[in-house]
Amino acid sequence: MRESRGVTATALDAAEVVVPKSPEEAIASFGDGSGVTVLGGGTIVMPEINYGRLRPARALVLARAGLAGIRRDGGRLTIGAMTTVAELADAPEPLATVARAVADYEVRAQATLGGNLCAPPGGEFPRGDLQGALIALAAQVRSAGKGGERTDPVEDFLAAGPDGRLVLEVELEEPRRAAHASVRRPHAHTYTILAVCAAETSAGIRVGVTGAAPHGVRARTVEQALAGGASADDAAQKILDDVEPRDDALASAWYRQRLLPVLARRALSDLEGAG
Fold it and tell me: 256 FRET partner, CA 20 to 30 A, in 31, 96, 191, 197?
């Protein structure tokens, strides 16, 4: 068994640890994903392993796979899956604001974009803080797995789930304007109770929600209302047609149902003001 930076034989017990040195090696080692546990930054997976809730037979450690970094080409950005959340602090809004608010600096310096996209729903609190912002920015997710490589709109990738897919990179465009509204709970690691992100892209205004469902959700009904000429106030009231809030340790579904239209109105009003 080979060891990688930050991963010990004790933590992974009897798992086969594979440390690819290039994206091509990572894709080949992942295959169709069967029996493979992917370790990016490890902020979610390693606690699961250390507490005995996850016992991987084969661990694919991406620290040296060459999947990190941000490339700019005019108004478009390509962000590698292993880019840390801390490195997104200078990304286009609303992604930058959301990234700066994830947990604390130690977590942001270790957690990755790909891991945030693939984060399973937490039993006690939401995960995937970046997802609403990525939806608002019309991000495209390039991944590999059974059937080869493909690129999906981020909302479709999230709805289908990450099983059997290895995230390679995310592509997005600089928005013409953007806004964000959220409610958080202070803690040693701050958690997002609920957030609404909005951005005007080349395809029009897009709205993403984080914290109301197991994964980020695109608020299509709100977008359609805005495209039809509705005011920010009227469009915001339709957001509960797009998502059904749930209970967790941070807040009740009842609380989220009442808060979500308020946050949507705030984000859309701020978006109007940014024009």
Answer: 96
